[in-house]
Amino acid sequence: AGTPGPFAVDCFNGRQSTCLWEKGTTSWFLSHFHYDHYIGLKKSFCKGKIYCTKITAKLVHHILGVPLERIGILLLNQPVAVQGVKVTAVEANHCPGACMFLFEPAGERPTLHTGDCRLTPSQVRDKMMPVLSKVRSQARLILDTTYCNRKYAHFPTKEEAAEAIARVISAEVASNPRVLVLVGSYTIGKELVFFKIAQALGRKVYIGANKRRVLKCLDLPAELRALATANDMETNVHAVPLGYVRSQQRMESILKHYKNKYSAVVAVCPTGWSLGSSDNGAARSSSISNNNSFISCKRKGKVVTYSVPYSEHSSYEELRFFVDWLQPVQVTPFVKLQDQEAFA
């Protein structure tokens, strides 16, 4: 809803998708390769064409098996005509390959669909303003409102968060070289965190087979590719699914598996939700300086868990800043159901 013409954005499943198909939709837009956005998309897709960035296209093809002839690649900031509508993909600063879509139908109001995005002032100024300035005060805005709540007023930038947690983990490893560092990650996203930690420690990071398949699609620079290893015994820094570092039982089980090599686990949970969690007031490690005051620490048994608000979504103040700048004529919230746990 909200996009002009017979277009669908991040809608491949359920009644709405079926309804759009029955109404003649043949142009399907995918903002990024997170499951809650591509759910329902399968290699048998035959309902028209999927439009996305090059990285997302590679993932859709190599991971899901969708034929290349079913995918239309959009280059950032380069308008194309889709069914007579001018469409421009704009950097979203979310995960690799993520983009926003600017739809400009002739004779009608433009619509900006953000998908999921991190709208820091510097990103808006450098990557978005050059394309979006022309639609200020004119566009309808479909906005990622994941953290549209005052308790998530401010986040550190992704770089600040990653560098801060890397310093903290370096101190932990210095005090006990026999710790196993588990860094939570999504299928795609959060890569900066485990690469920064690996660089700070001068070590490689172990990445499992599924995540390695994804990384091959990301066009990573050579220096980062060189940090990844498929040998879990080569390094004490392991990238794991985010759910692992939220489960004390899972982490204890992993430690037991490596009991002859490691004596403790230091886990990193990089998520914006950490600012609103009940653990945020937990006792803080002495290794956290004032500069890292947004990092919280929980110790239980042989497991230490650090939560850092590394967010790939906009903070409340960033959302306000962007809306104040764009001055849209209408704002429609866009939050997937899984994202609404913050408001339960």
From TrEMBL:
The keyword DNA damage applies. One of its GO terms (molecular function) is damaged DNA binding. Keywords: DNA damage, DNA repair, Nucleus. Residues 224-337 form the DNA repair metallo-beta-lactamase domain. One of its GO terms (biological process) is double-strand break repair via nonhomologous end joining. The keyword Nucleus applies. It is found in: Nucleus. Residues 29-169 form the Metallo-beta-lactamase domain. Signal peptide: none annotated. Gene3D superfamilies: 3.40.50.12650, Ribonuclease Z/Hydroxyacylglutathione hydrolase-like. It comes from the Eukaryota. GO terms for cellular component: nucleus. Pfam families: DRMBL, Lactamase_B_2. InterPro entries: DRMBL (IPR011084), Metallo-B-lactamas (IPR001279), RibonucZ/Hydroxyglut_hydro (IPR036866). Belongs to the DNA repair metallo-beta-lactamase (DRMBL) family. This is DNA cross-link repair 1A protein.
